[in-house]
Design goal:
By secondary structure, the chain is mainly alpha-helical. It has two helices and no strands. The chain is elongated and about 40 Å long.
């Protein structure tokens, strides 16, 4: 594993609020934090085979 994490959520705003609040309190830098919506291909693979996002 390369030290990165992927989290899927239906409420990205709430999750980001909680994550950044924790990072501030713990004095942790989130240097490479990104937020992305799944691509159409990701959604298709998830619906048809359940393998989307299994990197």
């Amino acid at each position: 594993m390369d030290g990165s994490y992927r989290i899927a959520t239906a409420d990205a705003m709430r999750l980001l609020h909680e994550l950044t609040g924790w990072a501030i309190a713990a004095d942790v830098m989130l240097d490479h934090l990104t937020v992305a919506r799944p691509s159409l291909e990701d959604v298709y693979l998830q619906l048809t085979s359940g393998v989307a996002g299994s990197e």
